[in-house]
Write a structure and sequence with these properties.
The structure holds 2 protein chains of 2 kinds.
Chain A lengths: L6 H16 L5 E12 L2 E2 L7 E2 L5 E18 L4 E3 L4 E5 L7 E8 L3 E8 L3 H4 L23 E9 L6 E7 L9 E6 L8 E7 L14 E2 L4 H10 L3 E2 L2
Parallel strand pairs in A: 1-12, 10-13
Antiparallel strand pairs in A: 1-2, 1-7, 3-4, 4-5, 4-6, 4-8, 4-9, 8-11, 9-10, 12-14
Chain B lengths: L1 H20 L32 H11 L12 H4 L52 H5 L8 H9 L2 H11 L7 H13 L7 H6 L9 H13 L14 E2 L15 H4 L8 E2 L21 H11 L18 H11 L5 H5 L9
Helix pairs in contact in B: 2-6, 2-7, 9-12
Classes of the chains: A mainly beta, B mainly alpha.
Chain lengths: ~240, ~350
């Protein structure tokens, strides 16, 4: 019966819950976040599109997927909105994933958006999760547990087998590949939709595909690639 | 409202704690409860996030025995994890899977896994719930994807019914639910009724022979530091001095950590039911316990990462080896190896 001592902790928790229900602060609304995959200034067309990297390699892209998590807005008054249970799998193949609503955002001027590319270590050790984190999505490593934070696959003549494959992940130090992105937003830009450009070109920064064309496990190469692709985002 | 919620909360907590403390395996209606035997540490697995129900357990068992999990419907979990040989692949040094393909390692047991921090010989898998992804997606085991498994299950009226029973009326078949159900079955696979356990519990009429008693003493002197009682593993990774196989080139733990200090280290397996778990070692190179003891007394190869516990070597005469083996055989749990609840069922 020693568990009875939890009783006093429950009471204030429950009370505050019911109290909070009574308060509604300023008006709130839904902000739609849109992700526009591009290569440089061109819209990204999977499979058939041909693009040239900054290193001069001609590539096509068959697959682009990444997790956006822990999305936050900072407002002009310094306050912060944090989406709860914030995990979104973005998949260039699936238009439905390229836009989603963030609920109950206070109606104030947004000055910055912050999010992670990848999945945090807690979710990475929590077994089988649901929704976008369900291992059924193909973004979970079978033999070395943990999420694949981001995936880019495609074709390139100079690469081995004429293919490149970048699966970036890993949650354990020293190879934790989750990365934070922080973008400033002009006050006049904030309607009910916020469009982010995801420019795939950033992945290939200082990459020679003849040499580096396959990253499929956590490690130093994955860490460098994660540093590359956080440069992918901008607000056009 | 609050006054009603509180007593319910408390009684759920008290009941939950009660269930965990009860050392009672016999439950009505084919229910399976995971118990914490007296003197055992707290389980690693978080049961609160996946409470075991008779329906979930039954679904997990069905999945465990179903070759539908493999790409060509040839191979099930139970193909390599056989109950009567302690959930290992008896007589196969390296386990094989789909299309007759051969793996690079010997099957590990699924026993007392609720107490395991990580899985596989290299510890690459961090939670029992995601463990099945390893064999399902390995090209030489089941060569499948979880998405494919889910798509197949959705076509089966029998499975749709079982998922509904296990996860509620509106329950869709999802990857998460396949894995949660399998986990319910696997964490229920518990062995704690060997002769050793009964002697430790001072049960009436069960006593060690003289040879077994001498064997226990030798065990505690020479083996206990890694194969720690009562689980008979310390859940760590060690290099036990096996000369590396030049063909397999298996570095073990280093594959996961990339740390040179982990080269040639493998998971310390539990010794419970060791008598029936042959062959032995991560690559199944030893056919019997005599060969294992020959290795530990005369075959240890020195290297940078060799376990310091083996640095001085183990000295044991032939008679002592016999005594030690006599003790190791007291770890065989016949009730566990033949318990019908864990056998194939048409249910």
């Amino acid at each position: 019966m020693k568990n009875i001592r939890y009783y006093p902790t429950f009471l204030p928790l429950l009370l505050s819950f019911f109290l909070l229900q009574g308060f509604t602060s300023q008006p709130e609304n839904t902000i739609t976040l849109k992700i526009n995959p591009k290569f440089g200034t061109q819209n990204l067309v999977l499979e058939s599109g041909k693009y040239v990297t900054t290193n001069g390699d001609t590539v096509s892209v068959n697959r682009l997927r990444f997790y956006m998590s822990a999305i936050q807005f900072t407002f002009s008054d310094g306050s912060v909105y944090k989406e709860s249970n914030s995990y979104h799998l973005i998949d260039a193949e699936d238009a439905a994933t390229l836009g989603f609503g963030l609920k109950d955002v206070p109606k104030k001027d947004i000055t910055a958006i912050t999010f992670n590319i990848g999945v945090d270590s807690l979710a990475s050790v929590s077994g089988a999760l649901e929704g976008d984190l369900d291992p059924v999505k193909g973004m979970y490593w079978a033999w070395n547990s943990g999420y694949i934070n981001a995936k880019l696959e495609g074709k390139c003549r100079v690469a081995e087998n004429e293919e490149y494959e970048f699966h970036v992940g890993g949650y354990l130090p020293p190879y934790a590949a989750i990365r934070k992105v922080n973008l400033k937003i002009d006050a006049q830009n904030t309607g009910n939709t916020l469009a982010l450009t995801a420019d795939v070109q950033a992945w290939f920064h200082a990459i020679q595909l003849s040499k580096t064309n396959r990253i499929v496990m956590p490690g130093e190469q994955a860490m460098k690639m994660a540093d590359n692709y956080i440069q992918m985002f901008r607000i056009d | 409202m609050k006054t009603r919620v509180l007593p319910v909360c408390i009684s759920i907590i008290v009941l939950g704690a009660g269930v965990l403390l009860m050392a009672n395996t016999e439950e009505p209606n084919n229910q399976v409860k995971v118990v914490v035997p007296k003197g055992w540490p707290k389980p690693v697995y978080d049961f609160a996030k996946n409470p075991i129900t008779p329906e979930g357990f039954s679904l997990g068992r069905k999945l465990f025995f179903d070759p539908l999990l493999s790409k060509d419907s040839s191979t099930s979990c139970s193909s390599c994890h056989l109950q009567f040989t302690n959930y290992t692949h008896v007589d196969h040094s390296l386990s094989h899977g789909i299309y007759g393909a051969k793996g690079t390692r010997n099957t590990l047991s699924i026993m007392n896994v609720a107490w395991s921090k990580n899985f596989m010989w290299d510890g690459g898998i961090n939670n029992i719930e995601v463990q099945p992804l390893g064999p399902i997606e390995n090209p030489v085991e089941m060569d499948n994807t979880l998405a494919n498994v889910v798509a197949h299950l959705k076509k089966s009226p029998a499975y749709r019914e079982k998922f509904k029973k296990a996860f509620g009326d509106s329950a869709e078949i999802t990857g998460q639910r396949v894995l949660k159900a399998l986990a319910q079955f696997m964490v229920s696979i518990q062995s704690f009724n060997s002769k050793y356990d009964k002697v430790m519990r001072k049960e009436k009429g069960v006593e060690f022979t003289e040879a077994e008693t001498r064997g226990l003493k030798l065990f505690r002197k020479n083996c206990e530091s890694c194969h720690k009682e009562p689980l008979f593993t310390n859940n760590s990774f060690e290099n036990n001095g096996l000369p590396p196989d030049p063909k397999l080139k298996d570095g073990g733990r280093i594959k996961i950590t990339h740390n040179p200090d982990d080269s040639l280290k493998f998971k310390v397996p539990s010794l419970r039911n060791i008598e029936v778990s042959y062959p032995y070692m991560h690559d199944g190179r030893y056919r019997n316990l005599e060969m294992v003891l020959f290795h530990y007394t005369a075959g240890i190869e020195k290297s940078k990462t060799l376990s310091p516990k083996l640095g001085k070597g183990i000295t044991m005469g032939e008679k002592e080896k016999k005594d030690l083996i006599a003790f190791l055989k007291t770890l065989t749990d016949k009730e566990f190896l033949t318990n019908k609840r864990f056998s194939y069922s048409t249910e």
